[in-house]
Amino acid sequence: MEEVVIVGGGLAGLSAAVDLVEDEDTNVTVLEKNGHLGGRAGNKIDPVEEDPVPIAPHIYVSFYDELKSFFSKIGSEDAIYWEDGQICDVYYEGEFSTVKTGHLKPPWYLASLFANYPLFSTREMLNNFKVGSKLYLLDEDDIEDLDDTTVEEFLNDLGASKGVIDKFYRLICLALLNAPVEKCSAAEFCRLMKNFMKTDGRDWGYAKGGLGDVYTENAREFIEEHGGEVRMKTAVEEIKFESEEVTGLELETGEYVEPDQIISTVPPTVLRDILPEEQMETEFFSHLENFHGVPYYSAFACLMVR
Ligand SMILES: Cc1cc2nc3c(=O)[nH]c(=O)nc-3n(C[C@H](O)[C@H](O)[C@H](O)COP(=O)(O)OP(=O)(O)OC[C@H]3O[C@@H](n4cnc5c(N)ncnc54)[C@H](O)[C@@H]3O)c2cc1C
After folding, report:
1. Which atom of ligand 1 is nearest to the CA of 296?
2. Is the CB of residue 253 less than 8 Å from the CB of residue 234?
3. Relative to the CA of 174, which of 16, 27, 166, 224 has its CA 20 to 30 Å away?
4. Domain limits of the chain?
5. Which three-class secondary structure state does DSSP give residue 132?
6. How far apart are alpha carbons 30 and 190 in whole angstroms?
7. Residue 33 in contact with ligand 1 by CB distance below 6 A
């Protein structure tokens, strides 16, 4: 029997565990530091009322194939309400405009979005068609080469006008990649745009209930029914190494575990805190220093039935 320990009970940890427990030769344990599951796609517990409060409104996109198969496996496929097309309000220079994508199949729904984008002048609309069609023609090799290029440099090279960048791509980068065009990786940006152009990339979905309630319990039940274990309030204090080989995990409880495989699903900014200092100097882990958190303000109304 292969012993696998997954560090973190967020979306990545739970979905990895759900896949792995199906293999009868694998024994899976999830270690989660909090007393609730879901991580950044879950609830925070209000310290005063002790109510579960969803962390953010969370938009799901219909090209999230792995997420859809995870939700369907655990019986949460009905937890998301799929909006036919995409609708959002954009606030720019004091004015709100509603953006709709219509009912065309990808990538044509994007053409209709570009043509009807309320903030563009005719000149900007035509300019954006040129940029959009160049984006459509990029392949994965072209995209790989863009990792050290910023979105701003990339769009300037494609001939995007300032208005097109400010009114459209700046918004996409901030809202969906959480980074400004001056800093965002052009490769990540292109992958996102290519996904929107895919056959199944058109619709947006919203969780029908509190984010932490729509999948975390079903995932935990699925894991336990298949012989796995989910341990909450069990933080990993340090990942132990012998030279460059991972050997085990030291837990906050004082336990030491030595599974055959360890899967870390904690964010990079957390991973570097649980690595021994000398590992941060190795070539493999040194890049973790380059990750920084980004400020994210999210205001939403949540109606709860008590
Ligand atoms: C405000 C906000 C809005 C967002 N909106 C969207 C959106 O609209 N659409 C979208 O697709 N994505 C959105 N995201 C991103 C999405 O939530 C994340 O990409 C996703 O939840 C990350 O899941 P994860 O499992 O990789 O990481 P996490 O959710 O961070 O999971 C890591 C888990 O590890 C646990 N952990 C940490 N340290 C330890 C330790 N030492 N030992 C054991 N466990 C530990 C944590 O408690 C956590 O449960 C949003 C994120 C935020 C914060």
Report:
1. 1
2. yes
3. 16
4. 2-77+208-290, 85-196
5. helix
6. 33
7. yes
Please count the residues of the chain.
306
d(CA 12, CA 26): 18
Cβ of 251 less than 6 Å from ligand 1: no
Phi-psi domain of 102 (left: phi exceeds 0; alpha: psi -120 through 50; beta: other): left
CA distance 84 to 203: 6
**Matching residue, tokens 């090799």:** 141
Q: Each residue of 139-181: pLDDT tens digit? A: 999 999 999 999 999 999 999 999 999 999 999 999 889 899 9
For ligand 1, say whether the CB of 54 is within 6 Å of any of its atoms.
no
Tokens of 165: 């960048």
| Cα of 296 from ligand 1 centre, angstroms | 13
Q: Identify which of 266, 272, 288 to mutate to test ligand 1's pocket (most ligand atoms within 8 A of the CB).
A: 266
Is residue 55 within 6 Å of ligand 1 at its C-beta? yes
Ligand 1: atom nearest CA of 15 is: 25
Secondary structure class of 211 (helix, strand, coil): helix
Q: What are the tens digits of pLDDT across the range 72-115?
A: 999 998 988 887 766 778 888 888 888 877 778 888 888 888 88
Contact criterion met (CB below 8 Å) for 31 and 250: no
CA-nearest residue, atom 5 of ligand 1 = 58
Measured CA to CA, the distance from residue 229 to residue 5 in angstroms comes to 10
Q: Is 56 in the pocket of ligand 1 (CB under 6 A)?
A: yes
Q: What is the three-class DSSP state of 141? A: helix
> Which architecture, in CATH terms, is 2-77+208-290?
3-Layer(bba) Sandwich (3.50)
Q: How many angstroms separate the CA atoms of 89 and 198, rounded?
A: 23
d(C-alpha 64, C-alpha 292), whole Å: 25
